[in-house]
Structure formats: C-alpha cells, structure tokens
Write a structure and sequence with these properties.
Length: 221
C-alpha cells in the first residue's frame, strides 16, 4: 500500500489511516476513499513511502507495564462512545490539536468541510470515543466498526494534556472495547519502520501485517 506524507511527516489525509484488509481486500481496495491524495508544491515536493498495513490480534494481547501506568494515569477521565458527528466543541478541539501538532504542514487550519469529509466512510459506521475531565473534553478517538474488528482511524486531544499520553490511552481503551464486543482485531492503519510519528504503533504486540491477501505475524525487535 502507498501513503502520501509531507516532509514534516504529517499525513495528507486522515482517511488514509483506515486500514486496508479489514474487510474483503479486493472490495476495500476498489472503494473511492482508498485513492490517496498526493500533492506537491513548487518549493517542497511530497515524499511517497511504501508502508505496511498493521493490525493487533486482541486474542493474544496483554497490556505492558507502561501501558498499565497510562491507564491508571487517566483513570480520572469519563468515557462516552457516540456516533461520529461535528459539534462546535469537538471541531474546536480538532483545530487546536492540528494547530499544535502540524504547524505549517497544511493541516493546521482545517475547515468544517474538511472535518465532515474526514467522518465520511461508506463501508463502515464510525464511532467517537470521547474522554472528559469533568466538563472539559480532552480527547476524541475516531473509530470505524467492522463485523469482526474495529479500526483506530485517528485520535486528537487537548495539546496541554499531552503528558497524559492520550493517544496510547485511546488505543488501549479501543482494544478493551473491541474485546468486550467479541471482535478479534484492532486495525492501527499504516506503519513505516523508522518513521518517528509511527513508531508508537510498535508498542502494541502482537502485530500482524497484510501481505497480499494474507495476514502474517510482524516480527519486531
């Protein structure tokens, strides 16, 4: 699979993180949303990388010590799972997150239409996992739901609470939710060995990679 990245490592389209292979591979690859948006400017070309699609096998997964500490650190948060939608509160958090994480990368000034397109997924219903500290919305994890799996599409959170490791917390909670619902896998999207912004995915074991139409255990040091 091919994904498009700007030189600063920011993904050009969040929907590229929707993992191929989580439904029938051929039918998924024929869907319009799998056409990656590759762009460039005269001053800075976009880099294209060949990447692996990865998912986590929930039946063999146990949280590591650091991950358990992350769950404990965020035990004071309240979780709500709801259908995906745009509200002023959620969109404002999304704007602050992108403005903090992708300054000057072309993603730091999102418009409502961009966010609405981000939510669109013809082949799967989409949920929002929302975490609050009291009345304050701290994080939202965008999650696609499949017959036997869930797909972690994207997580955005309050930049001033980065020390909580909310991205890791979101994946751990999605793992537990998928397990409770009897699903076997959580898809983590694309992964590129050595890419700094993707390296967090190697923390979740065991991982499988899509090789053609088959999933194989991904051996990592």
């Amino acid at each position: 699979m091919i994904g498009a990245f700007a030189e600063d490592g920011a993904e050009l389209d969040h929907r590229q993180n929707r993992a191929a292979g989580c439904v029938d591979v051929e039918s998924f690859n024929s869907q319009p949303h799998t056409n990656f948006h590759i762009g460039c400017t005269e001053s800075r070309p976009v880099l294209i990388h060949i990447q692996l699609d990865i998912r986590q096998n929930l039946l063999r997964t146990a949280a590591r010590r650091k991950q358990r500490r992350c769950l404990k650190r965020n035990a004071d948060l309240q979780l709500r799972v709801s259908p995906a939608r745009r509200t002023e509160e959620i969109f404002s958090l999304y704007q602050r997150y992108l403005g903090s994480r992708h300054v000057g990368g072309g993603m730091d000034q999102p418009q409502p239409a961009d966010f609405d397109a981000f939510l669109a997924c013809a082949w799967s219903p989409t949920r929002f996992f929302e975490w609050r500290l009291g009345e304050q919305l701290l994080a939202v994890a965008v999650t696609d739901v499949l017959p036997n799996a869930m797909s972690a599409v994207y997580t955005f959170f309050e930049p001033e609470h980065a020390a909580r490791s909310l991205g890791t917390h979101a994946i751990l909670v999605q793992i537990e939710q998928a397990r409770r619902e009897g699903r076997e896998h959580l898809y983590l999207g694309f992964w590129l060995d050595g890419h700094q912004k993707m390296d967090y995915k190697r923390k979740f074991r065991p991982l499988e990679t899509l090789a053609g139409k088959d999933w194989r255990l991904l051996g990592l040091p």
